[in-house]
Give the backbone structure.
Amino acid sequence: MRKGYRYFVAGSKLTNEKRLFLGLAPEYESIGEVIVLFENDEHFEKKKIILSRYNDSPIRIVEYSNAEMNKADFFYLELSNQKGYPSPEKSYLRDIFGNSFINENIQIFNQVNDVAATDIPKQITGLFGMAWLPSLIFCDILTYEKYIKPLDIQCRRVMDGNRKKVRDNIVQLLPEGVANDELKTDHERIKLGSQYFCKFDYHIHFSGYAPVRNRLNFFLTKELFLSIKTTYRMPIISKSFYEVLQKNKIKGARFYPFIN
């Protein structure tokens, strides 16, 4: 597991000397550059000081080795392909998730209705997510029928933006349940009212779950994770599901292995 940071820096702000030290070409992009720095870099601390002058809030990233990926029995699935928007924009939370709120500002993702969506490409393929719906996984109907349905994973229809017609080219994948066990991680826990919620951090790896107790191919964490205005359970997939996606080159997601 390799921890790192992604910085966005205006290229014109870096002198040629600093660019050389950071391993960048002399030429720079006028609109800015993305610079990735890993903690195992020989000059990590010095480079971090330089980059922090221009961006003090880098995005945390992580890389896993092939050995770690091959050894894992479960994976956290994060959708890298984002398409479309739930509709209508002003009421989609209540339309899809009902009136399940922790307080007046934070919604609980407890789906009670089909998703209605706009701006979905007709020829979309593979897995994808939708804006503002962090825990819901969608895919095209052909991928579902051929590769995912044989794993006994059920699906739910997706409606058009007016909620009058069913979209015939995509479906929403339905989790088979919630994990039997709690995660064994050090994710920060935040208390709201009488409940505790986890705060996600890429630098904290997932661990826990014994295959003998968790036999599902697609399920959700027992813990609720806290986003800006919502809470949701993290989508977890089995090694079998992961191998199907890899073998058939189904795109649209990143995978983070459980390290036990």
